[in-house]
Structures are given as structure tokens and as C-alpha cells.
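Handoff note, outgoing to incoming analyst
You'll be picking up this chain. Sequence as last confirmed:
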Amino acid sequence: MSEQEEIKKQKLSGGKFWSTFVAGILWGVAGSFIFGVLFLRNSLINEYQSKLGFKETIAQLGGDIKSAKGWIARSPSCSLPKPADGSKMVAIKLCNGQYASELMNDEVARKTAAMVPCTFAVYQKADGRTYISRLNMKLLGSLLGGKAGVVFSGKIDPDQENILKGLVE
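Most recent structure output, in case you need it:
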């Protein structure tokens, strides 16, 4: 093989290397994006099955929120529409003034005002059981970082876990 043919062969194999490398990077990015979307879709909202019926769950939840230090609960004035299947559903807004103050006093974390107060949804499904759902504050905090990450992950999430502890299976 001549020297020119050898150089041409090396150039072609180098081009194949780079095209394979770029294709691998693109597949990696696409796979990470798809995994991220699926992970967030399944993890951003936590759903728990209640041990109690609908009315009992609301009563117990209201009592547990009142007994949790610093937390208050109220039903929103803008109620949720009644589901087409006739099942029951209610949203309960929770607020902790100390945590809200920590977030609103930090200029960067103020954007979280869009999610304050926190909300628990209590509803029934076709199986007749009662469920409670809420945002995954630990995950949300880790995604937001900063002051919001500290308050959501380290304060709000543990408090909400304690509020739900006696209610969920």
C-alpha cells in the first residue's frame, strides 16, 4: 500500500470515529432526556392510599395539620370541579408562616410564591378507596436548590411526612 493510500485510510477511519462519537453523544442526551421526563412524571407528585374513608380522612388530616407546629389548613375558595364519575374530591391548602417567610425574604426564592401555600388533594378513585396526593417537596427542593431547596427538602417535606404518617398505608 502506498503512503498516500495509508494517509487516506487513516483520515477515513478518523472521520468514522468522530461521527460515531457524535452519534453516541446525541443518543446519550436523548436517552437522558427521556429518562428525566419519565422520572419526573412518576415522581413529582406523591400519591398515598388513605387508611380511612373520605370524610374521615379529611377530618383526620385537618386535625393532624392543626397539631403540627406552625401549620394551618384551609379549603380554597376556588373549589375543584366535581369529577364526571361523581367521586368526591377536595383540595386542602396548608401554610406555615415561618417557612413562607423564609422563602419570601430570599429574593431568589420568591418565585416559589407560585406554589405557596402547599396543597393536599383528597379524592376517591373508581376502586372506592380514598387517596391523598401532594407535590414531592423533597424532589422539588433538590431541583430548585438554594433557599428553596433547604426549606422544601429539609423542613416542609419532613413536616408533611409527619402529618400524613398516621393516615396512609
